[in-house]
Amino acid sequence: MIGPIGTIKIVEGFNQAMSFDALYRSKNGDGSSSAAFAVAIGKEIESPKENEKALVFEGLNGLKVYGFTVSHSPVEPAFGYRIEFGGKSIVISGDTRKSDNLQYFSQNADILVHEALNKEILRKFLEITKQYPDDATMKTAALTAERVMDYHSSPLDVAEIAKGANVKTLIYTHITPTLGSFFARTFITIPMFLHGVSDVYKGEVIIAEDGFHYELPIQ
């Protein structure tokens, strides 16, 4: 994990929360597990400037992970990531409104994994909530929907980024609102969610689901 001062403290909290689970697994397993392997390591870095990236991880055989800033105010800083290995590249947006810096670091990426919030669908939901002015749950949901629309990207925003960056494959993730059952997804919500995307971006488009798996052959 990377971020401002405080990241290490948060990671230490995760380690503490999971310490008993790690201990139980190491004691009751087959002897091949060790609690020492269940420790996350936090890392603080300076937030990169616009059009600059920071190397946050370097692995074997040339694997490199870079962090760069995206636009998610009032949550600051917020980061996207570019992973490079074997002549291939994958960009992960993190949470962000439409970001020029993200498009800059997505240039010619093989895959762009980008969050998306369909504002038109949420606006329809807001119209429904107005029919229940005395319902506290509806009121809270409406306030949340109005707030988050300002600092997330729409599907069309993402399509424009993918087109401008010459991305080969676009994968939508962290999708808001949720798309429902298989039947609803197939015939109603996915077509609504992606409305207009194919007019902007001509590459491969995928809606990620829980457990989604994608194999990208390296050179």
TrEMBL record:
SUPFAM superfamilies reported for this sequence: Metallo-hydrolase/oxidoreductase (SSF56281)
InterPro entries per the UniProt record, alphabetical: RibonucZ/Hydroxyglut_hydro (IPR036866)
Domain of life from the UniProt record: Bacteria
Descriptive protein name: Uncharacterized protein
Organism (species): Leptospira kobayashii
